[in-house]
Design brief:
- By secondary structure, this protein is mostly helical.
- Helices cover 52% and strands 7% of the residues.
- The two termini are 27 Å apart.
- Pfam families: Glycos_transf_1.
- It comes from Sphingomonas limnosediminicola.
- InterPro entries: Glyco_trans_1 (IPR001296).
Length: 82
């Protein structure tokens, strides 16, 4: 996501916390190989949509997981000054 790639992932292990379906990538039910393959093919064919979702994914990562965001939170959690 941080590199602007479109995540196509299963609804498992907290993926829904990061991948907003149809906005920052695609969520697929586990074992749904038909939808998974359709989404992969769709991303190879729809360049504008791939760019839009990839940019949104990257922006989400940069806004929420950059060092400027994460380190002050961590320092606060362990009782150090931000």
């Amino acid at each position: 996501m941080g590199h602007g790639l479109v995540p196509i992932v299963t609804r498992h292990g907290g993926m829904e916390d990061h991948v907003l379906d149809g906005v920052r990538g695609w969520l697929v039910d586990e074992r749904d190989v038909d939808t998974m393959s359709s989404r992969i093919i769709e991303m190879t064919e729809k360049h504008d949509l791939r760019r839009k979702l990839g940019c949104a994914a990257r922006e989400f990562v940069l806004s929420n997981f950059s060092g400027d965001v994460v380190y002050p939170r961590l320092r606060g959690l362990i009782g150090l000054e931000a």
